[in-house]
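Hi, here's the filled form for the chain we discussed.

Project: internal
Contact: R.S.
Residues: 209
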Amino acid sequence: MNPEIFEKFYQGQAPWDIGEPQPEFVRLAESGAIEGTVLDVGCGTGENALYLAARGHDVWGIDFVPKAIELARDKAIQRGLGVHFQVGDALKLEVLGRTFDTIIDCGLFHTLNDEERSLYARSLASAVRPGGAAYLLCFCDQEPPGDGPRRVTQPEIREAFHDCWEVQGIREARFKTVNHAGAPQFSPGGPKAWLVTVRRTPQSCPTTP
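And the returned structure, exactly as it came back:
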């Protein structure tokens, strides 16, 4: 991942920065699936984290793009919400020095290469309590080739999370994206995605390098 590429997106209109939480995470929250303390990994400008904080959750958000974190902090101040936003590396979450009940990932997993995916799964395991859940929304292989990130298959997801995690569900979903002239073109109704539910198993996991 190259932070400079994403930094340029945040200087303008990033297609995923929709000014509101992703509907899939709203549905999860309303169903009661999001529990306790929350870590939003790859939080961008913070809409999902801020939404959950407004619902009463203790939320941290990390992103490796300083501009995104700057924008997220400004939003938190404007809305009077106490979300802890910081620049951080999703592959080294152990440096946070704490664990969470729930982790969310909106559009980060699909930016990782094969080697990074296994490192990421171990990093997530270091940041969630045993029995805690992680919810990932990622581009799926049902989205036609074209603009946007690499499409992810279900076997790739299961391979990444075969240690320390139980894959409890992978279902069809959609991303909501910005629709304006010059924006990437995706399937009608939004890019096709997987919504992944994985739960941390009790056994100890390999540490991240």
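Let me know if anything looks off before we file it.
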